[in-house]
């Protein structure tokens, strides 16, 4: 895991390059103005849901945020080390060891209009109290462990072998409320993260 990635500096760099003030980015992202400032000064680490909302205001993906130099490839097959890391750089040495989420993307989702993720949720991991909402559809299969999924007013604890499929405009949230890691393979179209 790369520990020296500065989420705050990268966000500020992208915001300035887009010609936006903190307030303008907050409005475009529908997040509080202070949240942008707190992240840019590294006084707060964003949840996956919060960072995704903010990046939506910049019209960039998490892959573009964390791996700006990733080359486009026409590869068809991928080894585990070739998956694109979308989340581990959110965490620093200062963060608690539990509750991390790892999203690894297969290939160039934007080029294919389909995002396939290998997801790992440590015990206590949560996409964030702010529910995710975006245009598209997503589905997945729990490979191991269990994950609590809330979609709109419905909540279920899914175990290995269980699956899900829903319209992503419905507010949704993923949480690992168990004491062991959960692994999920998912797909989303169009790509969201």
UniProtKB/TrEMBL annotation:
The keyword Transmembrane helix appears for this protein: no
UniProt-listed PROSITE patterns: HTH_CROC1 (PS50943)
Record key words, sorted: DNA-binding
Origin superkingdom: Bacteria
Domain spans labelled HTH cro/C1-type: 11-65
One GO CC annotation: cytosol
Organism the protein comes from: Gemmobacter fulvus
GO MF annotation list: DNA binding; DNA-binding transcription factor activity
Protein name: Cupin domain-containing protein
Keyword Kinase: no
């Amino acid at each position: 895991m790369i520990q020296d990635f500065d989420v705050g500096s990268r966000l500020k760099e992208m915001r300035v390059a887009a010609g936006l003030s903190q307030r303008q980015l907050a409005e475009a992202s529908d997040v509080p103005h202070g949240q942008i400032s707190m992240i840019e000064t590294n006084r707060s680490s964003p949840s996956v849901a919060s960072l995704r909302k903010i990046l939506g205001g910049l019209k960039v993906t998490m892959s573009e945020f964390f791996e700006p130099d990733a080359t486009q490839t026409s590869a068809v097959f991928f080894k585990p080390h070739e998956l694109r890391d979308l989340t581990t750089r959110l965490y620093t040495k200062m963060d608690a060891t539990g509750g991390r989420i790892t999203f690894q993307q297969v290939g160039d989702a934007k080029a294919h209009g389909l995002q396939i993720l290998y997801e790992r949720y440590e015990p206590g991991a949560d996409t964030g109290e702010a529910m995710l909402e975006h245009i598209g559809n997503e589905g997945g299969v729990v490979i191991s462990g269990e994950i609590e999924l809330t979609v709109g007013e419905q909540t279920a604890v899914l175990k290995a072998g269980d699956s899900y499929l829903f319209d992503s405009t419905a507010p949704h949230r993923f949480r690992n409320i168990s004491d062991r890691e959960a692994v999920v393979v998912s797909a989303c179209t169009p790509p969201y993260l």
